[in-house]
Structures are given as C-alpha cells and as structure tokens.
Amino acid sequence: MKNSTDTQKKLLETGKKEFLKNGFKSASLRKIVKDAGFTLGAFYGYYKDKESLFDGLVEDVSNEMFTSFKKAQDSHFDLIDSEETINSTKLSTEYLRYFMDYIYDNFEQFKLLICCADGTKYENFINDLVNIEVERTTEYYETLRKLNKVKGNINKQLHHMLTSAYFTAVFETVAHDMAKEEALGYVEELALFFNSGWESLISFK
Questions:
Q1: Is the pTM of this model over 0.85?
Q2: What integer pLDDT is reported at residue 203 of this predicted model?
Q3: Where does 1-48 sit in CATH, by number?
Q4: Where are the alpha helices (DSSP H) in the chain?
C-alpha cells in the first residue's frame, strides 16, 4: 500500500476489515465503499471490482512468497555441487523459520490468503505451494538417485498427500491466530515429526 493514494489506502483498509470478517465471497462491496466514506463511482475509479481490491491487499505478499519459495527449492540443488546434500533436511528447516518470519511480518495478508480467499484466484494458495514442492523435490530426488546420494523411494500420490498435510499444518498457525512465539515452537516440533517420517522413507547419503 506504500505507493497508493490516500483514497486507495482508505479503501484497502476498509476492504481488509470486511474481508477478514466475512471472507471474500460474503464481503459486501457496497459496505466497504460506504464505510470508507466514498461512492461506488469513486471506487471504480481505482478498482474494477471486489476481487481487484482483494488483489491490492494480497498480490505483492503472494508473489513474494512464491518467488522466495522457488528460490528455496533451487538452493537445495546448490547442495549437490558443494557435496552437502546430507544437509538437505537442515536447510529445509532453516527455510521454514525464514518463511514463518515472513508470514508473521505480513500476518493479516496471510490471514486473507489462507482463510478468506475462497472465490478468488488465491483460493488454492496452499495447494499451489504444495504442487511446486512436490514437483521440485521429485526432481531433486531423481537427480540425487542418479548420483547415488539418496536411498529409499516414495510414490507421487503419497508424496503429495504428506506434503499437503505438512503445509496445511504449518498454516494452521495463521488460521488459529497463534502468537508468533507459540507458532515458532509449534512448527519446530512439526518439522521434527515430519522429518522423522520422511527419513524413514527417504534418506540422504
């Protein structure tokens, strides 16, 4: 919102309150505009519809999340060249901490993405992250297998199910409005639990 006009900022703030309270589908555009103190005509001078207002609240954070997440995936491949693939699990946990910091720095936007986005292009936000994770991790395992640096196997369906369960559990911190310190402790234990399970199926050499 830093480059928005005062009118846009008012609409965004009022829209955020309405979306957080009622979710995108049930949010009233008329109420947003009225509570912001403007007319529908003024609104349409800045946004073409209710979803574009929602975009204005979450688009930057969503894009940054996906960009950083893809970079995190790429960084695992860097471990191959440095022959440090044994540290793959450790690196994943470090990135989890980084992403938790980012989530809590932008908590309301993630609340919108996780809990209020039904009916928008963001409604599959978690699943989209899961699909990236499964695709890139499968590629990583296949590369390591050719180099004899990993043992064990997992089929794609189970891989997707476990990853989906893990990511959903991580974002429960947002869904349940956990305080940051509580959430950090929660995901540390969650990572230990899931990492132990993964290592029983696939381990790095």
A1: yes
A2: 86
A3: 1.10.10.60
A4: 6-26, 29-36, 40-44, 50-81, 88-105, 107-115, 125-146, 156-175, 180-201
